[in-house]
Amino acid sequence: MARDLETGLLRSFVTAVRAGSISRAATALGHTQPALSQQLRRLESVVGHPLLHRSPSGVSPTRAGEQLLPYAERILALSGQALTETGRALTGHCGVGLLEDLAASQLPQALADLARLHPHATLEVLSLSQAAMREAYDAGRVQLVLDAVPDIPGPPRWTVRRPLVWAVGHGVDVAADPLPVVLFSTPCSWRTAVLEAMERVDRQWRVAFESNSLVGVLAAVRAGLGVAALLPANLEPGMSAHVAHALPALPDVEFGLARHPATDGDPLLDAVEAALRRMV
Description:
Elements: H1 7-19, H2 22-29, H3 33-47, E1 52-55, E2 58-61, H4 63-85, E3 92-98, H5 100-103, H6 107-117, E4 121-126, H7 130-139, E5 144-148, E6 158-163, E7 165-168, E8 179-184, H8 191-200, E9 205-211, H9 214-222, E10 227-230, E11 240-242, E12 252-259, H10 267-279
Parallel strand pairs: 3-4, 3-5, 8-9
Antiparallel strand pairs: 1-2, 5-12, 6-12, 7-10, 7-11
Helix pairs in contact: 1-2, 1-3, 1-4, 2-3, 4-6, 4-10, 6-10
């Protein structure tokens, strides 16, 4: 018998991973927890593998879940775009500023799919420092910026909270004292929150490596230098999202979208903003 991936089941899975919690995901979707859990079990039955690690502190994707996540996000994005954009030709230019951690996710692919639907529109995705992003926004080169709320160049039109997870490389002992930690260099909007989480549980730690780029942080975790706080979408295969009691609970990160006020009512900007909101 042919197996199909129902978009409703994929949406439940993606929402659970983004929320980091079955209860928060159920609230976001307007479902009860038992109903959402049943949908997740149905999807796991179709896929043939467990997709989520479940613990008292929340949920995180298994290896199979990490592999399914980018496909699920793209399927949902394409479905939403097909429903809203079919029969409407969009033109013009839209510059999008993304935090590097988001630029490394499925968001650029969703925008590329949107551009393919509208060949007469041009989309430009930039990942810049906070100062350079502000300059590009003020100059009008970038009209939309999706970043951590403290770092966006204008008031947010909307915000969304997403969990951080502990990424643990091969061979790292999470019971080590002090715990080796891989950090983003300052300024980083969630670096302080991560270190404060350590202090709250009186956990001893040391900085094993730090970098101002996601590429550098991932390389350090991949090399087994320590643990790092990352978005679930940035985990690589084999880089477990560790939820053991040996590690403290991590804070959520609040993202917001700033839109240049001169672009209100622009249909291309409306479509791009809608695509970003669906994907983030």
